[in-house]
Structures are given as structure tokens and as C-alpha cells.
Design goal:
It is a single chain. By secondary structure, the protein is an all-alpha fold. Helix content is 74%, strand content 2%. Among the domains are: 1-45; 117-311, MetI-like (MetI-like fold, Orthogonal Bundle). The protein contains 15 helices and two strands. Strands 1-2 form a two-stranded antiparallel ribbon. A hairpin with a 2-residue loop joins strand 1 (92-94) and strand 2 (97-99). Residues 28-39 have a biased composition (Basic and acidic residues). The chain crosses the membrane at residues 53-75, 124-146, 158-181, 212-234, 264-289, 317-338.
């Protein structure tokens, strides 16, 4: 009886093994069949479209608009950068007479000319210095203010509103207000200095002071965004971590270093990236405050591109497009390097 039972168990086990092997063989044949896999992919796509058609319908207008206002100008700009287009050879209409375009394809000549021009290196160096200075100061001040506003004290809501005010005011209005403040003869800042017996400072007339002024204005405009973003990050950190650290005898600096900074890492990486891109392309502050002057001391890459297209004579559309494409390439390289560094640190972005 025992022998029959053992034989039955062995036979059942053998049948299970054979069935498992057969199932694996069918699975391999199915996976190795490209036609079937393609059919499954197509059916999966159709199923996704049928299931989420409403989402696709809602997204389609946005994609179309972005393609029109971003995709087409980008493609057009890249094309113009490969030509010798300027205001003398583009198509134009004078009265009732239409003149056809006569510009020609020149390949990478514009890129060779711009990259070989010492002006490009000068603009690039100052743009990098301007970006690093603005982002670092903005982040430091935003973090300090966020830490202050994350505590309970009387009038906290009023302080928050006052610190967010620069963000609510349109940028060009703020820049013009600062331009009046920096006026050498009638500006409030120099009036205050004069009252204290200090000589007037040429805020916008001296290259060094002009650079300081544009950085100060851009920091003033950028601090509210940085503060709000970091304040949201601070409020997402569990308070129990601070209580436990305080009970263990950790100092304020140790709590800030080992709890606050790691807790803000994800938010910090995002706002630093956004702030870098915005500052790198911050045209209004430079153009409205100093017009790139005095001389060309505060010109950055994006204002140089504007100058090529709208100020130079003849207006060099191909040169301006070349500067624009190079700016895009630099920002893309920065974003890729930034992303790789985050992935090495274990951040998912």
C-alpha cells in the first residue's frame, strides 16, 4: 500500500514537471513571435486609446498649441541659422511691390563665426557669472526666509503677504521702479546717501555698479518664488524628526544640516534648475534696467541675440537665430549634466 502511494506521488510530480516545461515552451514561443508581439502592442495601443480617449482629447489641443507657438518657431530658427538671412535679402513688401527672398544656405558658417568671435566668450562668461550669482543668492535668501516663516509668531500671515508682493507685481513695473530708485541725480538711494554725507553712486553708469544693480533687482524678483517653494518643502517635513533630534541633544545647526537640508533636497533640485533656466534667459531685467550698458558690460547671451535681430544694421536674422540655437544647446547640456549628477546621488528626476 505504501509502495502504491509513493508511485502515485512520483507520477503526479512527474506530470507537474512535464506540464511546467510545456508551459514554459509555449511562453518562449509566444515571446519570440514578433508578429504576435506587434499585434499585442497594436492592440494595447488601441485599448489605451479606447479607454483613455477623453484624456487624449483633452491633451491634443495643448500639444497642438505648443507645436504651433514653440515647435514651428524653433524649427524656423534652426533653419535661419543655417542661412545668411538679413533684412536686405528676406522677402518683404514695399507698397504694392513684393520682393522675394534671396538669402542662401550657408551650412554651419554662422556657428563657426559666432563661436570664433571673442564677443561670444565675453557674453558667455558674464552670463554664467550672472546666473550663478543670482541663483545662489536667491536660494540662500529664500531658504532663510522660508525657515523664518515656518515658525509660529504673531503677524506671520502679514509677513508672508509682504514678502510675496514682488512676485505679484509685473516684472517690467518692478524693473522701472528700481530704475527710478537707481537714478544718479534724483534716485531715492542716492538721496539717502547724500543725506548721510556719502557721495552719489553711479548705479547704472559704472560697469561694476551696473552689474551689481542688475543682480540685486533679479534677486529681489526671484526671492518670493524660491521662498514659497522652499516653505512648502519645509512644511512637508515631519515635525517628529525635529522633536526626536532635539530630545537627543542635537543643536539647531545639526537639525538644519541633517534634517532640513536632506528633507528639502528634491524641492531644492527642482527650483535650482528652474531658476537657472529663467535667469540664464532673463531678458527683461537686463534690457529694461541697463539696455546692456554701460557700453556692453551687462549684455548677456539673450540680449545679444536681440541686438543682432533688432538693433544692428542691417538686422542679422541668421546671426540672431544662431545665438538662440546656441543658448538652447547650452541649456540642454546643462539640464542633461544636472540630471546625470542627480541620478548619481540617487535622486529620481
Amino acid at each position: 500500500m505504501a509502495a502504491d502511494t509513493s508511485q502515485s506521488v512520483a507520477k503526479a510530480a512527474g506530470d507537474d514537471v512535464e506540464n511546467d516545461v510545456a508551459a514554459r515552451g509555449r511562453s518562449r514561443r509566444t515571446d519570440s513571435d514578433p508578429t504576435d508581439r506587434g499585434g499585442k502592442g497594436a492592440s494595447g495601443l488601441r485599448r489605451a486609446l479606447a479607454t483613455h480617449w477623453y484624456a487624449w482629447a483633452m491633451v491634443a489641443p495643448v500639444v497642438l498649441v505648443l507645436g504651433v507657438i514653440i515647435g514651428w518657431p524653433l524649427v524656423r530658427g534652426i533653419y535661419l541659422s543655417l542661412t545668411d538671412a538679413n533684412e536686405r535679402n528676406v522677402s518683404r513688401t514695399i507698397g504694392v511691390r513684393h520682393i522675394e527672398a534671396t538669402y542662401e544656405f550657408v551650412g554651419l558658417d554662422n556657428y563657426v563665426a559666432v563661436l570664433g568671435d571673442p564677443v561670444f566668450l565675453q557674453r558667455l562668461v558674464w552670463t554664467v557669472m550672472w546666473t550663478v550669482a543670482c541663483v545662489s543668492i536667491t536660494f540662500t535668501l529664500g531658504l532663510a526666509l522660508a525657515n523664518m516663516l515656518n515658525r509660529d509668531f504673531r503677524g506671520r500671515a502679514a509677513y508672508r503677504m509682504a514678502l510675496i508682493l514682488p512676485w505679484a507685481v509685473p516684472g517690467f513695473v518692478s524693473v522701472f521702479a528700481w530704475r527710478f530708485l537707481f537714478n544718479r541725480d534724483n534716485g531715492i538711494l542716492n538721496k539717502i546717501l547724500d543725506g548721510g554725507g556719502i557721495a552719489a553712486i553711479p548705479w547704472l553708469d559704472d560697469p561694476t555698479w551696473a552689474k551689481f544693480s542688475v543682480v540685486a533687482v533679479n534677486v529681489w524678483l526671484g526671492v518670493p518664488f524660491m521662498m514659497v517653494a522652499l516653505l512648502g518643502g519645509l512644511q512637508s517635513i515631519p515635525g517628529e524628526l525635529y522633536e526626536a533630534a532635539e530630545m537627543d541633544g542635537a543643536s539647531a545647526w545639526q537639525r538644519f544640516r541633517h534634517i532640513t537640508l536632506p528633507g528639502l533636497r528634491a524641492v531644492s533640485m527642482t527650483v535650482i534648475l528652474l531658476s537657472t533656466i529663467w535667469t540664464f534667459n532673463m531678458f527683461p531685467v537686463i534690457f529694461l534696467l541697463t539696455r546692456g550698458g554701460p557700453g556692453d558690460s551687462t549684455e548677456i547671451l539673450v540680449t545679444q541675440a536681440f541686438r543682432e535681430a533688432f538693433v544692428s544694421s542691417p538686422r542679422d536674422f541668421a546671426g540672431s537665430a544662431t545665438w538662440g540655437v546656441l543658448i538652447l544647446a547650452l541649456l540642454m547640456i546643462f539640464a542633461l549634466v544636472y540630471r546625470r549628477s542627480l541620478r548619481k546621488q540617487g535622486e529620481v528626476w
